[in-house]
Protein backbone atom coordinates (compact mmCIF):
# COMPACT_ATOMS: atom_id res chain seq x y z
CA UNK A 1 0.00 0.00 0.00
CA UNK A 2 1.09 3.54 -0.74
CA UNK A 3 -0.07 6.31 1.58
CA UNK A 4 0.51 10.03 1.35
CA UNK A 5 -0.29 11.74 4.64
CA UNK A 6 -0.73 15.54 4.56
CA UNK A 7 2.06 15.91 2.02
CA UNK A 8 3.03 19.43 0.93
CA UNK A 9 5.80 20.51 -1.40
CA UNK A 10 6.79 23.76 -3.10
CA UNK A 11 8.77 23.66 -6.32
CA UNK A 12 9.31 27.20 -7.57
CA UNK A 13 5.91 28.67 -8.49
CA UNK A 14 4.17 25.33 -8.10
CA UNK A 15 2.98 23.79 -4.85
CA UNK A 16 1.04 20.79 -3.58
CA UNK A 17 -0.94 21.45 -0.43
CA UNK A 18 -1.75 18.94 2.25
CA UNK A 19 -2.33 15.97 -0.05
CA UNK A 20 -3.59 12.79 1.58
CA UNK A 21 -4.13 9.67 -0.48
CA UNK A 22 -4.21 5.92 0.05
CA UNK A 23 -3.54 3.52 -2.77
CA UNK A 24 -4.21 -0.13 -1.81
CA UNK A 25 -1.74 -2.75 -3.02
CA UNK A 26 -2.49 -4.39 -6.36
CA UNK A 27 -4.84 -1.65 -7.62
CA UNK A 28 -4.63 0.11 -10.97
CA UNK A 29 -5.00 3.60 -9.56
CA UNK A 30 -5.38 6.54 -11.93
CA UNK A 31 -4.77 10.10 -10.80
CA UNK A 32 -6.97 12.25 -12.99
CA UNK A 33 -6.77 16.01 -13.19
CA UNK A 34 -6.20 18.96 -15.47
CA UNK A 35 -2.71 19.84 -16.69
CA UNK A 36 -0.48 21.58 -14.14
CA UNK A 37 -2.22 20.35 -10.99
CA UNK A 38 0.73 18.37 -9.63
CA UNK A 39 -0.04 14.85 -10.84
CA UNK A 40 3.52 14.20 -12.02
CA UNK A 41 4.95 15.62 -8.78
CA UNK A 42 2.87 13.10 -6.80
CA UNK A 43 4.48 10.29 -8.81
CA UNK A 44 7.94 11.79 -8.32
CA UNK A 45 7.29 12.08 -4.58
CA UNK A 46 6.27 8.41 -4.43
CA UNK A 47 9.41 7.51 -6.40
CA UNK A 48 11.53 9.50 -3.95
CA UNK A 49 12.87 11.89 -6.55
CA UNK A 50 11.61 14.76 -4.37
CA UNK A 51 11.26 14.88 -0.62
CA UNK A 52 8.06 16.47 0.75
CA UNK A 53 8.44 19.74 2.69
CA UNK A 54 5.79 18.49 5.12
CA UNK A 55 3.91 15.25 5.67
CA UNK A 56 4.87 11.62 5.24
CA UNK A 57 4.83 9.01 2.53
CA UNK A 58 4.42 5.38 3.54
CA UNK A 59 5.17 2.44 1.28
CA UNK A 60 3.90 -0.86 2.73
CA UNK A 61 3.62 0.92 6.10
CA UNK A 62 7.28 1.87 6.05
CA UNK A 63 8.29 5.54 6.14
CA UNK A 64 9.57 6.22 2.61
CA UNK A 65 11.84 9.04 3.83
CA UNK A 66 14.20 6.29 5.00
CA UNK A 67 14.23 4.54 1.60
CA UNK A 68 16.32 5.96 -1.25
CA UNK A 69 14.74 5.92 -4.76
CA UNK A 70 16.95 3.04 -5.90
CA UNK A 71 15.70 0.86 -3.05
CA UNK A 72 11.95 1.55 -3.34
CA UNK A 73 11.24 -1.18 -5.91
CA UNK A 74 9.57 1.26 -8.26
CA UNK A 75 9.30 1.28 -12.05
CA UNK A 76 8.74 4.65 -13.72
CA UNK A 77 7.41 5.39 -17.19
CA UNK A 78 7.47 9.03 -18.23
CA UNK A 79 5.28 10.77 -20.77
CA UNK A 80 8.36 11.55 -22.90
CA UNK A 81 9.61 7.96 -22.27
CA UNK A 82 13.04 9.23 -21.04
CA UNK A 83 14.96 6.46 -22.76
CA UNK A 84 18.74 6.72 -22.51
CA UNK A 85 19.68 8.09 -25.94
CA UNK A 86 23.27 6.79 -25.78
CA UNK A 87 22.19 3.17 -25.24
CA UNK A 88 20.42 0.85 -27.67
CA UNK A 89 17.06 -0.72 -26.83
CA UNK A 90 18.63 -3.88 -25.36
CA UNK A 91 20.97 -1.89 -23.11
CA UNK A 92 18.14 0.43 -22.06
CA UNK A 93 16.05 -2.52 -20.92
CA UNK A 94 19.01 -4.36 -19.38
CA UNK A 95 20.26 -1.21 -17.55
CA UNK A 96 18.80 -2.10 -14.14
CA UNK A 97 19.78 -5.76 -14.38
CA UNK A 98 23.36 -4.90 -15.34
CA UNK A 99 23.57 -2.58 -12.34
CA UNK A 100 22.67 -5.55 -10.17
CA UNK A 101 25.54 -7.46 -11.77
CA UNK A 102 23.37 -10.42 -12.77
CA UNK A 103 24.92 -13.11 -15.00
CA UNK A 104 24.81 -12.26 -18.71
CA UNK A 105 22.63 -15.28 -19.57
CA UNK A 106 20.09 -14.31 -16.93
CA UNK A 107 19.92 -10.76 -18.27
CA UNK A 108 19.50 -12.03 -21.85
CA UNK A 109 16.70 -14.35 -20.76
CA UNK A 110 14.82 -11.66 -18.80
CA UNK A 111 15.14 -9.06 -21.56
CA UNK A 112 14.25 -11.66 -24.21
CA UNK A 113 11.04 -12.72 -22.43
CA UNK A 114 9.86 -9.15 -21.95
CA UNK A 115 10.71 -7.92 -25.44
CA UNK A 116 8.85 -10.91 -26.85
CA UNK A 117 5.80 -10.20 -24.70
CA UNK A 118 5.76 -6.56 -25.82
CA UNK A 119 6.60 -7.38 -29.47
CA UNK A 120 9.82 -5.37 -29.60
CA UNK A 121 12.45 -8.12 -30.01
CA UNK A 122 13.28 -6.83 -33.50
CA UNK A 123 14.14 -3.39 -32.06
CA UNK A 124 16.85 -4.54 -29.65
CA UNK A 125 19.78 -3.16 -31.66
CA UNK A 126 18.14 0.14 -32.53
CA UNK A 127 18.69 3.42 -30.70
CA UNK A 128 15.78 5.36 -29.11
CA UNK A 129 16.06 8.23 -31.57
CA UNK A 130 15.07 5.92 -34.44
CA UNK A 131 11.89 4.56 -32.78
CA UNK A 132 8.27 5.67 -33.14
CA UNK A 133 6.31 6.93 -30.11
CA UNK A 134 4.56 3.57 -29.61
CA UNK A 135 7.84 1.66 -29.87
CA UNK A 136 9.55 3.98 -27.39
CA UNK A 137 6.62 3.54 -25.03
CA UNK A 138 6.96 -0.25 -25.13
CA UNK A 139 10.72 -0.03 -24.54
CA UNK A 140 10.13 2.31 -21.63
CA UNK A 141 7.59 -0.14 -20.17
CA UNK A 142 9.96 -3.07 -20.68
CA UNK A 143 12.78 -1.19 -18.93
CA UNK A 144 10.55 -0.56 -15.92
CA UNK A 145 9.02 -4.05 -15.83
CA UNK A 146 12.21 -6.07 -16.24
CA UNK A 147 13.05 -5.42 -12.58
CA UNK A 148 9.63 -6.79 -11.54
CA UNK A 149 8.74 -3.66 -9.52
CA UNK A 150 6.14 -3.84 -6.79
CA UNK A 151 4.93 -0.38 -7.84
CA UNK A 152 4.69 0.87 -11.42
CA UNK A 153 4.35 4.64 -11.83
CA UNK A 154 3.19 5.93 -15.21
CA UNK A 155 3.09 9.61 -16.14
CA UNK A 156 0.59 10.06 -18.99
CA UNK A 157 2.04 7.05 -20.80
CA UNK A 158 -0.44 7.13 -23.66
CA UNK A 159 -0.91 10.85 -24.20
CA UNK A 160 1.47 11.23 -27.14
CA UNK A 161 0.21 8.21 -29.09
CA UNK A 162 -2.21 7.95 -32.01
CA UNK A 163 -5.67 6.47 -31.22
CA UNK A 164 -4.91 2.99 -32.64
CA UNK A 165 -1.61 2.58 -30.76
CA UNK A 166 -3.29 4.00 -27.66
CA UNK A 167 -6.02 1.34 -27.84
CA UNK A 168 -3.48 -1.45 -28.31
CA UNK A 169 -1.30 -0.25 -25.44
CA UNK A 170 -4.35 0.13 -23.19
CA UNK A 171 -5.04 -3.59 -23.66
CA UNK A 172 -1.37 -4.39 -23.06
CA UNK A 173 -1.31 -2.34 -19.86
CA UNK A 174 -4.34 -4.25 -18.54
CA UNK A 175 -2.63 -7.53 -19.40
CA UNK A 176 0.62 -6.39 -17.75
CA UNK A 177 -1.26 -5.39 -14.58
CA UNK A 178 -2.94 -8.78 -14.45
CA UNK A 179 0.34 -10.64 -15.13
CA UNK A 180 2.65 -8.73 -12.77
CA UNK A 181 0.08 -8.08 -10.03
CA UNK A 182 1.89 -4.87 -9.12
CA UNK A 183 0.33 -1.66 -7.87
CA UNK A 184 0.02 0.71 -10.80
CA UNK A 185 -0.27 4.46 -10.30
CA UNK A 186 -1.18 6.07 -13.59
CA UNK A 187 -1.47 9.78 -14.26
CA UNK A 188 -3.65 11.13 -17.02
CA UNK A 189 -6.08 13.86 -18.00
CA UNK A 190 -7.93 11.51 -20.37
CA UNK A 191 -11.29 10.38 -18.89
CA UNK A 192 -11.68 7.47 -21.33
CA UNK A 193 -8.21 6.12 -20.53
CA UNK A 194 -8.90 6.41 -16.80
CA UNK A 195 -12.25 4.66 -17.15
CA UNK A 196 -10.89 1.88 -19.33
CA UNK A 197 -7.78 1.02 -17.30
CA UNK A 198 -8.41 1.79 -13.67
CA UNK A 199 -9.78 -0.08 -10.71
CA UNK A 200 -9.66 3.15 -8.70
CA UNK A 201 -9.64 6.80 -9.78
CA UNK A 202 -8.50 9.81 -7.76
CA UNK A 203 -9.41 13.31 -8.88
CA UNK A 204 -6.85 16.03 -8.14
CA UNK A 205 -7.80 19.68 -8.53
CA UNK A 206 -5.84 22.79 -7.48
CA UNK A 207 -3.13 20.71 -5.82
CA UNK A 208 -5.60 18.76 -3.64
CA UNK A 209 -7.19 15.31 -3.89
CA UNK A 210 -10.96 15.92 -4.18
CA UNK A 211 -12.39 12.43 -4.63
CA UNK A 212 -11.26 8.80 -4.75
CA UNK A 213 -13.43 5.89 -5.86
CA UNK A 214 -14.12 3.31 -8.51
CA UNK A 215 -14.47 4.70 -12.05
CA UNK A 216 -18.23 4.15 -11.86
CA UNK A 217 -18.60 6.10 -8.63
CA UNK A 218 -16.32 8.95 -9.69
CA UNK A 219 -17.66 9.35 -13.22
CA UNK A 220 -21.37 8.71 -12.54
CA UNK A 221 -22.03 9.50 -8.91
CA UNK A 222 -19.77 12.35 -7.96
CA UNK A 223 -21.04 14.45 -5.07
CA UNK A 224 -18.30 17.08 -5.22
CA UNK A 225 -19.41 20.08 -7.32
CA UNK A 226 -15.82 20.92 -8.37
CA UNK A 227 -15.19 17.33 -9.48
CA UNK A 228 -18.52 17.24 -11.30
CA UNK A 229 -17.68 20.49 -13.03
CA UNK A 230 -14.25 19.15 -14.06
CA UNK A 231 -15.84 15.95 -15.39
CA UNK A 232 -18.59 17.90 -17.10
CA UNK A 233 -21.42 16.14 -15.25
CA UNK A 234 -24.09 17.27 -12.83
CA UNK A 235 -23.20 16.50 -9.19
CA UNK A 236 -25.37 13.97 -7.40
CA UNK A 237 -27.13 15.78 -4.59
CA UNK A 238 -27.39 13.86 -1.35
CA UNK A 239 -30.01 14.72 1.21
CA UNK A 240 -29.40 14.32 4.87
CA UNK B 1 5.49 48.14 -51.98
CA UNK B 2 8.21 48.11 -54.66
CA UNK B 3 10.10 50.81 -52.74
CA UNK B 4 9.95 48.73 -49.57
CA UNK B 5 11.39 45.71 -51.37
CA UNK B 6 14.13 47.89 -52.89
CA UNK B 7 15.14 49.07 -49.40
CA UNK B 8 15.09 45.52 -48.06
CA UNK B 9 17.43 44.41 -50.86
CA UNK B 10 19.78 47.34 -50.23
CA UNK B 11 19.76 46.65 -46.48
CA UNK B 12 20.58 42.97 -47.06
CA UNK B 13 23.39 43.98 -49.43
CA UNK B 14 24.92 46.29 -46.80
CA UNK B 15 24.79 43.70 -43.98
CA UNK B 16 26.18 40.93 -46.23
CA UNK B 17 28.98 43.26 -47.38
CA UNK B 18 29.92 43.93 -43.76
CA UNK B 19 30.07 40.18 -43.05
CA UNK B 20 32.36 39.63 -46.05
CA UNK B 21 34.56 42.64 -45.23
CA UNK B 22 35.14 41.53 -41.63
CA UNK B 23 35.91 37.96 -42.74
CA UNK B 24 38.31 39.29 -45.38
CA UNK B 25 40.09 41.47 -42.81
CA UNK B 26 40.51 38.53 -40.40
CA UNK B 27 41.83 36.25 -43.15
CA UNK B 28 44.19 38.97 -44.48
CA UNK B 29 45.67 39.55 -41.01
CA UNK B 30 46.22 35.82 -40.41
CA UNK B 31 47.60 35.14 -43.88
CA UNK B 32 50.11 37.98 -43.56
CA UNK B 33 51.65 36.20 -40.57
CA UNK B 34 51.42 32.78 -42.25
CA UNK B 35 53.14 34.04 -45.43
CA UNK B 36 55.85 35.92 -43.51
CA UNK B 37 56.66 32.87 -41.39
CA UNK B 38 56.19 30.22 -44.09
CA UNK B 39 59.77 30.17 -45.40
CA UNK B 40 61.54 30.22 -42.06
CA UNK B 41 59.26 28.00 -39.97
CA UNK B 42 60.98 24.74 -41.00
CA UNK B 43 64.39 26.07 -39.93
CA UNK B 44 63.33 28.00 -36.82
CA UNK B 45 61.13 25.27 -35.38
CA UNK B 46 64.27 23.14 -34.80
CA UNK B 47 66.09 25.81 -32.78
CA UNK B 48 66.50 25.00 -29.05
CA UNK B 49 64.51 28.07 -28.05
CA UNK B 50 61.38 27.25 -30.08
CA UNK B 51 61.69 23.56 -29.13
CA UNK B 52 61.78 24.63 -25.47
CA UNK B 53 58.78 26.91 -25.96
CA UNK B 54 56.79 24.15 -27.68
CA UNK B 55 57.59 21.62 -24.95
CA UNK B 56 56.82 24.06 -22.11
CA UNK B 57 53.58 25.16 -23.79
CA UNK B 58 52.46 21.54 -24.22
CA UNK B 59 53.47 20.62 -20.66
CA UNK B 60 51.73 23.56 -18.98
CA UNK B 61 48.62 23.54 -21.18
CA UNK B 62 48.03 19.79 -20.80
CA UNK B 63 48.30 19.98 -17.01
CA UNK B 64 46.14 23.11 -16.73
CA UNK B 65 43.50 21.63 -19.07
CA UNK B 66 43.37 18.39 -17.05
CA UNK B 67 42.94 20.39 -13.83
CA UNK B 68 40.26 22.55 -15.48
CA UNK B 69 38.30 19.41 -16.49
CA UNK B 70 38.55 17.88 -13.02
CA UNK B 71 37.36 21.07 -11.31
CA UNK B 72 34.84 22.19 -13.95
CA UNK B 73 32.82 18.96 -14.06
CA UNK B 74 31.61 19.00 -10.42
CA UNK B 75 31.22 22.80 -10.39
CA UNK B 76 29.23 22.78 -13.65
CA UNK B 77 27.05 19.93 -12.36
CA UNK B 78 26.29 21.84 -9.17
CA UNK B 79 25.43 25.02 -11.08
CA UNK B 80 23.25 23.11 -13.54
CA UNK B 81 21.41 20.73 -11.23
CA UNK B 82 21.78 21.56 -7.54
CA UNK B 83 19.58 23.88 -5.52
CA UNK B 84 21.89 26.09 -3.53
CA UNK B 85 21.81 29.48 -1.88
CA UNK B 86 23.26 32.48 -3.76
CA UNK B 87 23.37 30.50 -7.01
CA UNK B 88 23.20 33.50 -9.33
CA UNK B 89 25.83 35.35 -7.29
CA UNK B 90 28.05 32.28 -7.53
CA UNK B 91 27.48 32.18 -11.30
CA UNK B 92 28.58 35.81 -11.60
CA UNK B 93 31.68 35.27 -9.44
CA UNK B 94 32.70 32.22 -11.47
CA UNK B 95 32.30 34.21 -14.68
CA UNK B 96 34.44 37.10 -13.38
CA UNK B 97 37.79 35.98 -14.84
CA UNK B 98 36.11 35.89 -18.27
CA UNK B 99 35.36 39.60 -18.02
CA UNK B 100 38.66 40.60 -16.39
CA UNK B 101 41.54 41.57 -18.70
CA UNK B 102 44.08 38.70 -18.40
CA UNK B 103 46.76 41.15 -17.28
CA UNK B 104 44.56 42.16 -14.34
CA UNK B 105 43.99 38.48 -13.52
CA UNK B 106 47.78 38.12 -13.53
CA UNK B 107 48.18 41.02 -11.09
CA UNK B 108 45.56 39.48 -8.79
CA UNK B 109 47.41 36.16 -8.82
CA UNK B 110 50.76 37.86 -8.33
CA UNK B 111 49.50 39.61 -5.22
CA UNK B 112 47.82 36.47 -3.84
CA UNK B 113 50.89 34.29 -4.30
CA UNK B 114 53.57 36.96 -3.87
CA UNK B 115 52.33 39.33 -1.20
CA UNK B 116 50.12 37.39 1.21
CA UNK B 117 50.67 34.97 4.09
CA UNK B 118 48.88 32.32 2.03
CA UNK B 119 51.49 32.74 -0.75
CA UNK B 120 54.35 32.60 1.75
CA UNK B 121 52.88 29.50 3.35
CA UNK B 122 52.66 27.78 -0.05
CA UNK B 123 56.22 28.89 -0.77
CA UNK B 124 57.37 27.31 2.49
CA UNK B 125 55.60 24.10 1.47
CA UNK B 126 57.69 24.09 -1.70
CA UNK B 127 54.90 25.33 -3.98
CA UNK B 128 56.22 28.46 -5.59
CA UNK B 129 54.13 30.22 -8.22
CA UNK B 130 55.81 33.59 -8.74
CA UNK B 131 58.18 33.61 -11.74
CA UNK B 132 58.01 29.82 -12.07
CA UNK B 133 56.50 27.25 -14.45
CA UNK B 134 53.86 26.53 -11.77
CA UNK B 135 52.81 30.15 -12.15
CA UNK B 136 52.12 29.62 -15.87
CA UNK B 137 49.89 26.65 -15.03
CA UNK B 138 47.97 28.56 -12.35
CA UNK B 139 47.52 31.54 -14.67
CA UNK B 140 46.16 29.27 -17.42
CA UNK B 141 43.76 27.61 -14.97
CA UNK B 142 42.54 30.93 -13.54
CA UNK B 143 41.79 32.40 -16.96
CA UNK B 144 40.33 29.27 -18.60
CA UNK B 145 38.42 27.53 -15.81
CA UNK B 146 35.35 29.80 -16.06
CA UNK B 147 35.18 29.11 -19.78
CA UNK B 148 35.28 25.34 -19.24
CA UNK B 149 32.65 25.61 -16.48
CA UNK B 150 30.39 27.60 -18.79
CA UNK B 151 30.63 25.10 -21.63
CA UNK B 152 30.05 22.14 -19.31
CA UNK B 153 27.17 23.82 -17.47
CA UNK B 154 25.35 24.35 -20.76
CA UNK B 155 26.10 20.76 -21.76
CA UNK B 156 24.69 19.34 -18.51
CA UNK B 157 21.64 21.62 -18.70
CA UNK B 158 20.93 20.15 -22.12
CA UNK B 159 20.72 16.62 -20.64
CA UNK B 160 17.13 15.81 -19.65
CA UNK B 161 17.15 15.54 -15.81
CA UNK B 162 14.43 12.88 -16.06
CA UNK B 163 17.10 10.51 -17.39
CA UNK B 164 18.84 10.86 -14.02
CA UNK B 165 15.54 10.27 -12.21
CA UNK B 166 14.89 7.13 -14.24
CA UNK B 167 18.42 5.87 -13.57
CA UNK B 168 17.74 6.31 -9.84
CA UNK B 169 14.54 4.24 -10.01
CA UNK B 170 16.47 1.56 -11.91
CA UNK B 171 18.93 1.20 -9.05
CA UNK B 172 21.60 3.89 -9.53
CA UNK B 173 22.96 5.89 -6.63
CA UNK B 174 23.31 9.61 -7.47
CA UNK B 175 26.99 9.05 -8.29
CA UNK B 176 26.23 6.06 -10.53
CA UNK B 177 23.49 8.04 -12.31
CA UNK B 178 26.02 10.79 -12.97
CA UNK B 179 28.71 8.47 -14.32
CA UNK B 180 26.37 6.18 -16.31
CA UNK B 181 23.96 8.75 -17.73
CA UNK B 182 24.82 12.45 -17.36
CA UNK B 183 28.55 12.15 -18.06
CA UNK B 184 28.30 9.96 -21.20
CA UNK B 185 25.59 12.26 -22.55
CA UNK B 186 27.85 15.26 -21.93
CA UNK B 187 30.66 13.69 -23.96
CA UNK B 188 30.51 16.12 -26.89
CA UNK B 189 30.48 19.16 -24.61
CA UNK B 190 33.43 17.79 -22.65
CA UNK B 191 35.42 17.18 -25.85
CA UNK B 192 34.56 20.64 -27.23
CA UNK B 193 35.33 22.32 -23.90
CA UNK B 194 38.60 20.43 -23.48
CA UNK B 195 39.89 21.30 -26.95
CA UNK B 196 39.04 24.98 -26.73
CA UNK B 197 40.38 25.24 -23.16
CA UNK B 198 43.61 23.60 -24.24
CA UNK B 199 43.95 25.97 -27.21
CA UNK B 200 43.29 28.96 -24.99
CA UNK B 201 45.84 27.66 -22.45
CA UNK B 202 48.46 27.35 -25.19
CA UNK B 203 47.85 30.95 -26.15
CA UNK B 204 47.58 32.37 -22.61
CA UNK B 205 49.84 35.41 -22.31
CA UNK B 206 48.72 38.30 -20.12
CA UNK B 207 48.12 36.55 -16.81
CA UNK B 208 51.09 34.20 -17.29
CA UNK B 209 53.37 37.16 -18.08
CA UNK B 210 52.40 38.96 -14.88
CA UNK B 211 52.72 35.92 -12.59
CA UNK B 212 55.48 33.87 -14.19
CA UNK B 213 57.37 36.57 -16.03
CA UNK B 214 59.08 36.29 -19.41
CA UNK B 215 62.41 34.57 -18.94
CA UNK B 216 64.09 32.78 -21.84
CA UNK B 217 64.45 29.04 -21.36
CA UNK B 218 62.59 29.26 -18.06
CA UNK B 219 59.04 30.52 -18.44
CA UNK B 220 59.15 30.83 -22.22
CA UNK B 221 55.94 29.41 -23.65
CA UNK B 222 55.03 29.98 -27.31
CA UNK B 223 53.23 33.30 -26.78
CA UNK B 224 56.00 34.49 -24.42
CA UNK B 225 58.56 33.45 -27.03
CA UNK B 226 56.63 35.41 -29.67
CA UNK B 227 56.64 38.46 -27.37
CA UNK B 228 60.36 38.17 -26.50
CA UNK B 229 61.46 37.66 -30.09
CA UNK B 230 59.31 40.51 -31.38
CA UNK B 231 60.86 42.72 -28.67
CA UNK B 232 64.39 41.83 -29.75
CA UNK B 233 63.62 41.99 -33.47
CA UNK B 234 64.03 38.28 -34.25
CA UNK B 235 61.09 38.18 -36.65
CA UNK B 236 61.75 34.64 -37.95
CA UNK B 237 61.47 33.11 -34.49
CA UNK B 238 58.45 35.29 -33.67
CA UNK B 239 56.65 34.30 -36.86
CA UNK B 240 57.40 30.61 -36.25
CA UNK B 241 55.80 30.79 -32.81
CA UNK B 242 52.85 32.73 -34.23
CA UNK B 243 52.34 30.17 -37.01
CA UNK B 244 52.36 27.25 -34.62
CA UNK B 245 49.73 29.02 -32.48
CA UNK B 246 47.62 29.80 -35.56
CA UNK B 247 47.68 26.17 -36.75
CA UNK B 248 46.71 24.90 -33.29
CA UNK B 249 43.91 27.49 -33.04
CA UNK B 250 42.47 26.55 -36.44
CA UNK B 251 42.46 22.83 -35.65
CA UNK B 252 40.94 23.47 -32.22
CA UNK B 253 38.23 25.70 -33.64
CA UNK B 254 37.35 23.03 -36.20
CA UNK B 255 37.09 20.33 -33.51
CA UNK B 256 35.17 22.65 -31.17
CA UNK B 257 32.60 23.46 -33.85
CA UNK B 258 32.29 19.80 -34.81
CA UNK B 259 31.59 18.67 -31.25
CA UNK B 260 29.25 21.44 -30.18
CA UNK B 261 30.52 24.99 -30.37
CA UNK B 262 26.95 26.13 -29.84
CA UNK B 263 27.21 25.18 -26.19
CA UNK B 264 28.88 28.52 -25.46
CA UNK B 265 26.55 30.84 -23.58
CA UNK B 266 24.02 28.13 -22.92
CA UNK B 267 22.25 28.25 -26.27
CA UNK B 268 21.79 24.50 -26.17
CA UNK B 269 20.19 24.51 -22.76
CA UNK B 270 16.70 23.07 -22.86
Comma- or semicolon-separated keywords:
heterodimer; A: 240 residues; alpha/beta; Rossmann fold; 2 domains; six-stranded mixed β-sheet; 36% helix; B: 270 residues; mainly alpha; MetI-like fold; 80% helix; globular
Describe the structure.
The complex is a heterodimer of chains A (240) and B (270). Chain A is built from eight helices and ten strands. In chain A, the strands form two sheets. Chain A has a six-stranded mixed beta sheet, sandwiched between helices. A four-stranded antiparallel beta sheet of chain A has the order 2-1-4-5, covered by helices on one side. The model of chain A has no long low-confidence stretch (mean pLDDT 87). Chain A is an alpha/beta fold and 240 residues long. Chain B is mainly α. Chain B folds into two domains: 44 residues; 220 residues, MetI-like fold (Orthogonal Bundle), CATH 1.10.3720. Helices cover 80% and strands 0% of the residues of chain B. Chain B contains twelve helices and no strands. The radius of gyration of chain B is 22 Å and the shape is globular. Chain B starts with a helix and ends in a 10-residue tail after the last helix. Classes of the chains: A alpha/beta (240), B mainly alpha (270). Chains A and B meet through β6 and α2 of A and α7 and α8 of B.
- In CATH, the homologous superfamily of the largest domain in chain A goes by the name P-loop containing nucleotide triphosphate hydrolases
Strand content of chain A: 25-35%
According to CATH, the homologous superfamily of the largest domain in chain B is MetI-like
Low-pLDDT stretches of chain A: none
Gap between N and C termini of chain A: 33 Å
Shape-level CATH architecture of the largest domain in chain A: 3-Layer(aba) Sandwich
Largest β-sheet summary of chain B: none
Q: List the quaternary state of the chains.
A: heterodimer
Number of domains of chain A: 2
How many alpha or pi helices of chain B? 12
**Rounded radius of gyration of chain A (Å):** 18 Å
Largest sheet of chain A, described in full? 6 strands, mixed
Amino acid sequence: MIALKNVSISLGDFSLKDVSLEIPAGEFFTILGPTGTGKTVILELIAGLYQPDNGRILIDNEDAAQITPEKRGIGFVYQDYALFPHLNVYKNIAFGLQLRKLPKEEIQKAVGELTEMLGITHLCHRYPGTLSGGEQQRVSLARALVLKPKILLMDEPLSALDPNTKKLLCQELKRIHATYQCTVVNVTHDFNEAGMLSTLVGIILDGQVRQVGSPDVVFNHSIDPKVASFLGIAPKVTYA
Amino acid sequence: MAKKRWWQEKFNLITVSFAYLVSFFILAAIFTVVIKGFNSIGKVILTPEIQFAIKLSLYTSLISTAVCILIAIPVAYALARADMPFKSLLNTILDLPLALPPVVSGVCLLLVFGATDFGSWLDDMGLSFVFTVNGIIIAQIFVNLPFMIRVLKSTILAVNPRLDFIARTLGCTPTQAFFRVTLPLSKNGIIAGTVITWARALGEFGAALMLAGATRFKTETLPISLFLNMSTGDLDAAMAAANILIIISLISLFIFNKFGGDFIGGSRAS
